[in-house]
Amino acid sequence: MKRNFIYAALMTPVMLLSSCKESFIDRPSLSGTTTGNYYNNADEVRGATSTLYSGLPWRNFESRAQDAIGDVMSGNMFTYTDVEYLNFTVSSASERIGAAWGAFYKIIGYANVMIKTFEEKKAAGGGASYLDPAIAECHFVRGMVYFYIARTWGAAPIITDPGATALSGNFNIPRYLQKDVLRFALEELKLAEAGLPESDVPGRLTKYTAKGMMAKLYLYQKDYANAKTKAQEVISSGKYMLVDDYYGMFTKMSMNNNAETLFSIQHQLAQDPWGTGNIKNPDRGASNLRTAEADAWEMYVPSLDLLKEYEFGDLRRRWSVMEHGWTNAGWKPQRVNAPKYNEFMANGFKYDTLQPADAGGNLNATRSNIAKYFAGPGKSFGGESVLGQNSGNNVVLLRYADILLIYAEAVLGTNASTNEASALDAVNKVRKRAGLGPKTSFTLDDILHERRVEFAFEGDYWYDIQRQGFAKAKAMIARQNRGSVNAPNYITNFTEDKMYLPIPAGEIVQDPELGKEPVPYYK
């Protein structure tokens, strides 16, 4: 089956939404397209919900904020740009915090308006057969985003009816307790599980996507019984598998929506509208791979601590990291007026930390670059198609390897170790693909190690550290070398208040309630 996800009506939410006083409240338009003359068939409805998958609303999270929060803060990435995340000196004025907050509440705004619109259409006699699955898609996205919000900020606003809020004129919206934000997220995912189909075209949500995200949320809450149940339901479905080409899963458009993917941000290779394409490419690409087609300025590089984490023989190291000796014979980058560089790269790309830069060498703070999500120097130079900062490879937010490791950890639960057969089978499937031998038992630290190297540079490891609780999180961070080859750096200032990020300063100015203690959402 064709694995390119087809977009339609990307501008639909523009007709539905206009901005309001608070950046996290999107208000439905009081004029324009009405439910009476639109959403009359499945194509129109699915065209609207396709926006929820698009890079457009996700752009300000997945571009840099995801990296800074998920990987720089976790000790997986080194950077000279987002140093406050490296050193835990993040302030409420941070650009990345504001970007992530804005992206998340914009996506929620889209989902809110669509849920209300589709429910009104259904009440007016619209077809439940295509409206109900669309409503369920919105519930999934809303639940998943609130899960991100709860893990990132802890206590946070919950907005479900932006129109009523906007029309009321009351913008004094409080933060709600983290446990209530997580409960709300779980309720949304349950609604999605009930309403989504068993299967759909590749890239679209199904009830197994909802089950998988529920398993992840249950694990975060240390509800091991339910995490195990939901992960097992995904595994038993037989709908997913680990793909052989791990590296290609993140770098090839042809592998978008592959058999390992449960949910991805769907990208298209396009300059306009900006953000439709994947814009991770330049931030990760080695500077000696910059060409006339592809930008590359290595804003983020692997940390020394992460490089130390890989076991000998772990294939994920080469699939995720470029180091001295890393090659790609198919890539043949060339530059105008650069004879030494062109000669060095003529027979294929070589990552070399000894050569001078003008002769093709690359020497940075950790002697390495990120391979994951770097699509290459451009089609004319033997790589994937790249348009400056844009590539067409999707960004994966939930995949089957995660489900397997969630299942294994849920079986382990609070035990010191386990050799339970099904849990070992789940762990060893992930390890086998990486070229590693099987485990005969494992501990929580074994699982955390596996998760760190399996999902490196995917924006997830900070949440793995955070969910261990403050004492263990502090110990994990204190052991990390977050510095460069020439300047080691160890964190000594990690305190409990740094387990969550501050609310953006601009939001508190507009809504002082956000600066106060959180209150219950559920009465």
Automatic annotation (TrEMBL):
Residues 81-219 form the SusD-like N-terminal domain. Keywords: Cell outer membrane, Membrane, Signal. GO terms for cellular component: cell outer membrane. It is found in: Cell outer membrane. PROSITE patterns: PROKAR_LIPOPROTEIN (PS51257). InterPro entries: SusD-like_N (IPR033985), SusD_RagB_dom (IPR012944), TPR-like_helical_dom_sf (IPR011990). Residues 305-517 form the RagB/SusD domain. The keyword Signal applies. The keyword Chaperone does not apply. Belongs to the SusD family. This is RagB/SusD family nutrient uptake outer membrane protein. The lineage of its organism: Bacteria, Pseudomonadati, Bacteroidota, Cytophagia, Cytophagales.
